[in-house]
Amino acid sequence: LNKSDLALLILDINEVITKQDARLVEEIIERKKSLIIVANKWDKVDEHDTKKFTLYINRELPFARYVPIQFISAKNNSKIDHLLDLILSVNDQRHVTLSQNNLDWLMKSAVKKHRPTKGRGTKYPRLYAFTQTGTNPPTFMVRVGTRESLADSYLRFLENQLREKFGFLGTPITMWVQKGRDVHGAHDS
């Protein structure tokens, strides 16, 4: 896992998801690795209802809802080639660089949908900038005023907006807050 950018978690779709499975997914996400869940032994399932099984997996692993699930049968070589395409797609998502125009548009759109929520303090924060600071995995910085604080829930909201508009399929996104109005302002984040 230390030497990889992308992990495949293979689950037997006929077995319940265990706490150990959940812990592995948490570990992969904490290490900022991209992830694909491979639901194997699809040939042994009576009812091939991918929606039902996807809901089950998302309910058991709610912190990994952005992770794609590929249903396969290794025994029958069913959908293995789809898995290879998915691996390439998720790898591409790790390296996406968004234009500043796209990020400015997303920030304005997000603020219209949902006013930034304050972390500590009494003043609602104002977003001065939203920039991408890295890829592999994608990293973003949100700048607020020097004496302002932004709630973690708003960072999750921004992450969800990024995923909704630009994908980042199976890829963890890192966001951090910088305080100071100007580009060369304070660096106390």
Any overview of this molecule?
The chain is of the alpha/beta class and 189 residues long. The chain contains five helices and six strands. The strands form two sheets. It has a three-stranded parallel beta sheet with strand order 1-2-3, sandwiched between helices. A three-stranded mixed beta sheet has the order 4-5-6. Helix 2 links the parallel strand 2 and strand 3 (69-71). The longest helix is centred in the middle third of the chain and has 15 residues, at 80-94. It is elongated, with a radius of gyration of 19 Å. It starts with 5 loop residues before the first strand and ends in a 10-residue tail after the last strand.
What is the mean pLDDT? 91
Report the order of strands and helices: EHEHEHHEEHE
Shape: elongated
Question: Strand tally, please?
Answer: 6
Report strand %.
15-25%
Q: For the report, how would you describe the main beta sheet?
A: 3 strands, parallel
Uncertain segments of ≥5 residues (pLDDT<50)? 185-189
> Structural class, judged by helices and strands?
alpha/beta
Name the helicity range. 25-40%
What's the arrangement of strands in the largest beta sheet?
1-2-3
Using only C-alpha atoms, the radius of gyration works out to 19 Å
Number of helices: 5
Distance between the termini: 29 Å
Write the layout of secondary structure elements.
Elements (H helix, E strand, L loop, with lengths): L5 E7 L6 H12 L3 E7 L9 H11 L8 E3 L8 H15 L5 H14 L13 E8 L4 E6 L7 H15 L7 E6 L10
Parallel strand pairs: 1-2, 2-3, 5-6
Antiparallel strand pairs: 4-5
